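Re: beginner question about structure tokens

> Can someone show what the tokenized structure looks like for a real chain? I only ever see the sequence side.

Sure, here's an example I had lying around. Input first:
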Amino acid sequence: MHSTNTLLRSLHDLGAAAWFGGNLMGAIGLNGASESVSDPSDRLRTASVGWAKWAPVNMAAIGAHLVGGAGLLLANKGRLAGQEGVASSTVAKAALTVAALGTTAYNGVLGAKIAQAGRAPADSAVTPSPGTPDDVAAAQRQQKVLQWITPALVGAVVVLGAQQGELQRPEQVKKGILGRFLPS
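And the corresponding structure tokens:
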């Protein structure tokens, strides 16, 4: 009997796509647009409100990605053990996913600290001004770098997902299984 994993692949891929795209749009669009808010005391609040609206969708996207990924792991456990290259790719992808989860969580912590500042002046969501409180300015400087790391990590997860799809081509499966038993 032939089975497909369309639902699992969809959860995995759409979750990663939303996680990647939302964070990239937030870094470029939302944080970038905050500089255009005319009152410097509204820049942090405006960006924080936008990120707060995105957070539940981002969490759902991450959840969908993780559920889909776990399901695909279970569905492909035979290939994981038997096909050369699948395990190493899966370990790399899992490590990148864990790192992206960490940067996402830390971005949330920094964002909450920034949001608590309320109407503190700033040049943008991630760029302090001379009047920005020191603790908020420190969080902004960290977030200015970190905002690019999450989409880079999730983008790498997407690329490894594409690579794993290629490993499922019949000629790659045959080569990967034979590679376990035949010397190169």
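Each token stands for a local structural state, so reading them left to right follows the chain. The chain has a mean pLDDT of 90.
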